Amino acid sequence: MMVNSRVGNPDHKRDRNIPAPENEVIAARMEELLRPLVYNQLSYYQQLGLRDRILGLPLMVAAVLTLLWRQVPSVRELHRLLNREDLLWCKAICVSQQALSKRFLEFPASIFEQVMMELIPKLQARLILRKSRPLPASIRFAKTKFQRIWAVDGSTLEALFRHLESLQEKAVSLGGKIYTIVDITTYLPVKITFEENPNCADATMWDWLHRCVTDGTLLIFDRGFYDFTEFA
Predict the structure, then answer these.
(1) Judgement on whether residues 61 and 99 belong to the same structural domain of the protein
(2) 66, 80, 158, 200: least buried by Cβ within 10 Å?
(3) How far apart are CA 114 and CA 192, in angstroms?
(4) Of 95, 110, 125, which marks where a domain is finished?
(5) What would the pLDDT profile of 201-230 be if each residue is shown by its tens digit?
(6) Structural domain contains residue 120
């Protein structure tokens, strides 16, 4: 029996090589929710010293959202889409793949965070207005004792695919770690932070948790956050 000795990362083996088709209803809802928030960030964008250009704030946010929700398999395919299709609120425009790749490396992640944190209250308001699914009995009971029920966890981000020339000379490393606090009654994020060290221990994040968590909160976490000195 022959054994395949080649070792590969299964996360790098994509089943999809073309983007999902656009859904007009989803695209319209995303534009309704996000377009005003994106343009609200223009002053912050300028404070960061970023000037207006073809691959500016509105277009880059639309490109990243398209990359995610339509499961575009690569920046190369996103470049093709951008040259031939309107992406959400942005018209199709001719740019080089090199320019788009370079822009992704330079564009500050804090802008996406600002947009998301401004969006969350709107989603919370919509949740209150519509009839939600009933909460589990355990959550209903906990809500009689606590004002908020939050869960926190960390996730190690995958290493970068080094297909770009600008990345090929860099050492292979994981992409860091992202920590998220989620309100488990609404399933919406409350706080997010990023840690560059992918080997960061969860128990070292208690200073951040202290700044986020207020009185009357039930915090749920796994064993990675166990710190008996902290509990004492």
Answers:
(1) yes
(2) 158
(3) 11
(4) 110
(5) 999 999 999 999 999 999 999 999 998 888
(6) no
